[in-house]
Structures are given as C-alpha cells and as structure tokens.
C-alpha cells in the first residue's frame, strides 16, 4: 500500500504541474456548497418597486451604491469614493451599502475606514454595513459583477446603473466565473464606464446604453519634476499576482534590455518580490505611499506599465510626473495612449526591449514624448470627468421617471 500511495501521489504531482489534477479538491470545505460561495447567483428574492415611496421621494436625486467590502489600497474603491465625493458637490445625495462585509460594523466605523483608506470625508453622505438595509432610491449602482446580482433583485428605484472599471470576465479562465461576470452586462443596466474602450465594448457587444469618463490625476500628488541625474533607469509596475499586469512578460523584456545595456537600473513597485529571482539589477520598493510615487516616476527615463485589460490610472500619473509611459498596444489602452504621448509596444518581450533600448539611446526623442505627454494630461480633471457621469445619471433618471409617471396614470 505504501508503494502504491507513493506512486499515486507522484503521478498526481506530475499531472497537476501541467494544470490538471486527478482529484478535485472541494474549495468550500467538507460542509460547504456551491450556494455558500455564490449566494447571489441563484437568489431570486426581490425587493419590489413602491409607487408610494416614489411619490414621497426627496427633491434631491439619491444614488445608492452597492460596493464590495472596504479594504486599504484598493484603487477601484478609491475611484468609487472619489466619484461619490464629486457628485456630492454637484448636489447628489449618496448612500453606500457594503456587500459581503461585516454586518455588525457601525456606520461611524465605516465612515472612519473610508477616511483612513481613501482620504475622503463622506460628509453627510450615508454608509451602511449591509445591502439588507437598502431603501427606496432614485438610482442604484452596481460596482462589480457580484454586486450586479444584488442590484438585479432590487427594484425599488427609478433607474439601475453599472459603474464598470474593467472587463471583469477577463479576470478568470474560461469557465463558470467568466460567464457569471459576463452575464451581468446583459441585465439591462445603464453603463458608467472608465474610459472609451469599455464604453464601446459594452455598447457594441452587449447592447448597453453607456457613457464613459476619462481618467485624471490628483494634482496635489503628481506634478512636473525634473530628472536629477543621467543614470539609465526604468520603472516597472510589478504585480505578479495580478495576471492582467503581465509580470512575466515585463521581466523577460527587462532581462533582455539589461543584457544590451548592462548599467541600467530597474525600479520595481506594486508588491514585494522576495520570492522571485530576477536577472538584472533592481530596487524593490514594494507597496509605496501615494505621496512618494511622483518623485520615483520622475527619476525614471521610462515607466513600463503593462495592462492586458482596461488601462490603469498609472499612465496619467506617470505623464503628470514628467516621465514616459511604455505600454502594450490595444484598444484597451489606446483610448488614452498613442505614439505621440507614450511608447507603445507589442505584447512581446523582444519588441519591448527593442523600443526601450532605442529611446535610451535617443534621449532627444524621448524628451519630445515626455513634453507632449505632460501637456496632454493637463486638460483632464476629475471634476470635469465626473461631471459627465452626473449629466448621464440625471438624464437617465429623468427619462425613466417620466415612464413611471405615464405608466401609473
């Protein structure tokens, strides 16, 4: 029996190394079920529309945001809270409901967490620890594919929106979760999208009425800083556990570049890389404070920021800090980036190394890109972009409100 067990375990290890397993582990434990992990998928309990609540609504527009549990360092949460803050200044009353969080948390504790994690005071906007506490609202907004299922069951509202920051099916292999996420784009919500790629994709492929807002940057954090030395230095946004950041591709490109230009220095940030051996000289800064990023970007000749799904905020922050973005080609990135404000490369390590080597040896051309990029980002402000969201939301709610009134007559 001992020999058989040893052979079986050896075979399982060999097979699982290449992506298969002879025994499928239960990820939920002995007592778990699929419904325990995906309660929102099959939940059909609905909150129905109340015309009485509609008639007695406040004069100011109220938006209810259903968001995942709060956590430090979440860029997606920061974008949501920033939008809420700006919409508040435009006269919108906001309520935030946490999905899948600690239902025993107080609103005061949650308000404090928002301030600590994202730097915004919610003022007189409201925050609640559970979606069970949701009441009538003019517009309800899903902010992730899981929360879109919660919003599907909540009908005591005028309009439903989907604040989409990325194409979330791409976060998964083709399988159940891919389709769980993709299905949410077919729920009939109005799409508020981070940028033009998502705006077009969700409209053309899923029939959603969409409005995109562009990105901007915090002017108190990112500003023009001159490079202080002549050292060849590259920044790489290194997040190996976030697949869409293509860590392996970037590392291969930098290893090739270091063979060609041995004196190059690479600065890495995004997460600590203690478990990795990299074949080039580098400084690992791990997770950095926001206030330190501008100086780091500005002291690098180029910043390699790869994104295989929607563009991140980093490219605009890099350009505002007076550095040059290197990123992969594709509609997902080129709604902001182009050959005049950045260095666009194929999703190929050799092409990346070729382009970076060229510009390190042609600093005059690199300087022109840097100047053009800095000029371009000056036209964007968060206030201006979120005003587009305000206009879209109020227009949709007004249209749907008329339909409700006509239907009740």
Model description:
The protein is an alpha/beta fold and 409 residues long. It folds into two domains: 45-216 and 384-408, Rossmann fold (3-Layer(aba) Sandwich); 233-379, Glycogen Phosphorylase B (Rossmann fold, 3-Layer(aba) Sandwich), CATH 3.40.50. The chain has helices spanning 2-17, 34-37, 39-42, 51-55, 75-89, 107-118, 145-152, 176-183, 196-206, 247-260, 290-298, 314-320, 331-334, 349-360, 363-377, 382-408, and strands at 62-68, 93-99, 126-128, 137-142, 157-164, 190-194, 210-213, 233-237, 265-269, 282-284, 302-304, 325-328, 343-345. The strands form two sheets. Strands 3-2-1-4-5-6-7 form a seven-stranded parallel beta sheet, with helices on both faces. A six-stranded parallel beta sheet has the order 10-9-8-11-12-13.
CATH fold field value of the largest domain:
Rossmann fold
Q: Judging from the principal axes of the Cα atoms, what is the shape?
A: elongated
What is the typical, i.e. mean, pLDDT? 92
Number of helices: 16
Cα-to-Cα separation, first versus last residue: 79 Å
Uncertain spans, ≥5 residues at pLDDT below 50? 1-24
Category from helices, strands and their pairing = alpha/beta
Q: Based on DSSP secondary structure assignment, what is the total number of beta strands?
A: 13
Short description, anyone?
This protein has 16 helices and 13 strands. By secondary structure, the protein is of the alpha/beta class.
Secondary-structure topology with pairs:
Layout: H1 2-17, H2 34-37, H3 39-42, H4 51-55, E1 62-68, H5 75-89, E2 93-99, H6 107-118, E3 126-128, E4 137-142, H7 145-152, E5 157-164, H8 176-183, E6 190-194, H9 196-206, E7 210-213, E8 233-237, H10 247-260, E9 265-269, E10 282-284, H11 290-298, E11 302-304, H12 314-320, E12 325-328, H13 331-334, E13 343-345, H14 349-360, H15 363-377, H16 382-408
Helix pairs in contact: 5-16, 10-14
């Amino acid at each position: 029996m001992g020999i058989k067990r040893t052979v079986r375990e050896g075979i399982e290890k060999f097979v699982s190394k290449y992506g298969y397993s002879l025994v499928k582990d239960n990820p939920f434990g002995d007592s778990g079920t699929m419904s325990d992990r995906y309660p929102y998928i099959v939940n059909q309990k609905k909150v129905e529309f109340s015309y009485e609540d509609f008639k007695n609504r406040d004069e100011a527009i109220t938006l209810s945001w259903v968001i995942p549990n709060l956590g430090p360092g979440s860029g997606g949460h920061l974008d949501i809270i920033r939008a809420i803050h700006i919409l508040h200044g435009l006269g919108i009353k906001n309520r935030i409901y946490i999905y899948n969080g600690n239902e025993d948390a107080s609103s005061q504790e949650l308000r404090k967490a928002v301030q600590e994690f994202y730097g915004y005071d919610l003022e007189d906007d409201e925050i609640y620890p559970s979606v069970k506490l949701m009441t009538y609202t003019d517009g309800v907004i899903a902010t992730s594919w899981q929360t879109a299922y919660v919003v599907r069951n909540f009908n005591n509202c005028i309009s439903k929106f989907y604040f989409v920051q990325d194409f979330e099916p791409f976060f998964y292999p083709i399988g159940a979760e891919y389709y769980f996420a993709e299905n949410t784009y077919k729920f009939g919500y109005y799409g508020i999208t981070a940028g033009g790629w998502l705006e077009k994709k969700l409209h053309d492929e899923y029939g959603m009425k969409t409005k995109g807002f562009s990105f901007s940057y915090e002017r108190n954090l990112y500003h023009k800083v001159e490079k202080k030395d002549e050292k060849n230095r590259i920044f790489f946004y290194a997040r190996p556990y976030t697949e869409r950041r293509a860590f392996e591709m970037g590392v291969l490109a930098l290893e090739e570049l270091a063979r060609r230009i041995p004196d190059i220095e690479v600065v890495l940030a995004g997460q600590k890389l203690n478990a990795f051996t990299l074949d080039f000289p580098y400084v690992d800064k791990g997770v950095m404070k926001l206030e330190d990023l501008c100086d780091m970007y500005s002291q690098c000749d180029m910043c390699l920021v790869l994104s295989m799904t929607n563009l991140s905020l980093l490219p605009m922050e890099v350009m505002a800090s007076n550095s040059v973005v290197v990123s992969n080609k594709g509609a997902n990135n080129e709604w902001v980036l182009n050959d005049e404000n950045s260095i666009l490369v194929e999703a190929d390590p050799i092409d990346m190394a070729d382009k970076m080597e060229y510009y390190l040896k042609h600093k005059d051309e690199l300087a022109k890109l840097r100047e053009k990029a800095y000029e371009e980002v000056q036209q964007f402000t968060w206030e201006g972009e979120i005003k587009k969201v305000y206009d879209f939301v109020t227009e949709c709610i007004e249209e749907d409100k008329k339909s409700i009134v006509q239907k009740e007559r």
